[in-house]
Design brief:
single chain, 7-stranded mixed sheet, alpha/beta
């Protein structure tokens, strides 16, 4: 579980695409959808990384090119934590869980007898992490279950509207990466269907991020807890159903999307299986890693990080010439409005 255009704009884009492709040949439709490279990815430095992205998209929508992709095959999947928004010093969903623990503590006096829950209620992240994965799961289950899906979504939305990161002073939902937002826009403008495939909780992401990336709820895939239908409502149960991480990402892509993606972006070893699965689809595939190299504007971490560790994935990316986005070198800016 731990592990911008708006929806209106997205709808207009889709309607525009439909209107322009109706009664046309596939070739005419795909050529008309191409967006000039000089007007896209403006937060990316004009270097080889940007060139590779634009070249891939250009070839994919050119029906005369050997790497042309039919519209229905233009599937792009993105990890969320550390790929589309920040994840340090700890996952933002954990920040929500900690805030919820503090808010709910008065109704759960028994938590004061549990070291992990007491730490969570007191905002002691080190105390929560001391128990490792078991402690994290305990805090998440205690704060994410026992309510209806509607109640949970409302709680997350209220938190996302106001909660700020103590280091940056930004709201968590403002700590999204401007270059990646531009990439999402660029892909959709060229009729790629964009998905989130993340280890984060699917209900949390759908509530917190629905108006952030221009990705509809049904295209957000993540970890789930068990649910039951009770008295006409869906109730969240304190039990993990599926962890959408590592090999689980590839499994969920096949199960939910039903196609091997053309593009996959991640930032950690937890995304490696997703990129490997994408690579299995054929020659015209783009596998990319966001490499956190900017200690001044964001964070610098990879092989030894306790969050977002990028070790085996980095080795494989280098060996196979996958795209490695160097945040310090490739991005003009990190967050919107910076």
């Amino acid at each position: 579980m731990l592990n911008r255009i708006t929806c209106v704009t997205l709808l207009c884009t889709l309607l525009f695409s439909c209107a322009n492709t109706e009664n046309k040949t596939e070739e005419e439709g795909t050529k008309s959808s191409f967006v000039e490279s000089s007007s896209v990815l403006l937060s990316w430095n004009d270097d080889e990384t940007r060139d590779r992205l634009i070249s891939f998209v250009t070839n994919s929508v050119d029906s005369s090119h050997a790497d042309f992709l039919k519209t229905e095959d233009r599937i792009a999947v993105f990890d969320n934590d550390g790929t589309l928004w920040a994840e340090q010093p700890y996952y933002f969903q954990l920040a929500y869980a900690m805030d919820q623990a503090k808010f709910m503590a008065t109704d759960h006096p028994e938590w004061m007898e549990d070291e992990t829950m007491k730490a969570a209620a007191e905002g002691d992240i080190k105390g929560v992490l001391a128990e490792g994965e078991r402690g994290l799961i305990k805090v998440v289950m205690s704060t994410h279950a026992g309510m209806t899906e509607t109640e949970f979504a409302n709680s997350v939305k209220a938190w996302a509207d106001t909660a700020t990161n103590p280091l940056t002073g930004k709201r968590y939902v403002e700590m999204i990466y401007e270059p990646m937002l531009e990439l999402l826009d660029y892909l959709r403008e060229n009729e790629f269907k964009t998905y989130i495939v993340s280890g984060g909780g699917v209900a949390f992401m759908r509530a917190a991020l629905l108006d952030t990336y221009g990705i509809p709820a049904e295209q957000i895939i993540g970890s789930t807890i068990k649910r039951e239908f009770v008295d006409g409502e869906i109730v969240r149960m304190p039990e993990i159903e599926f962890i959408d991480d590592k090999e689980g990402k590839a499994v969920n892509i096949e199960r939910i999307i039903g196609k091997i993606p053309a593009i996959a972006f991640g930032n950690s070893d937890g995304d490696l299986a997703m990129l490997q699965y994408t690579a299995s689809g054929g020659s015209n595939r783009l596998m990319g890693y966001v490499h956190h190299t900017d200690s001044i504007r964001e964070y610098a971490y990879d092989r030894d990080s306790h969050i977002g560790r990028l070790d085996k994935g980095l080795d494989e990316a280098i060996e196979k010439n996958w795209l490695v986005v160097d945040m310090a070198e490739d991005w003009k800016t990190i967050y919107p409005n910076d």
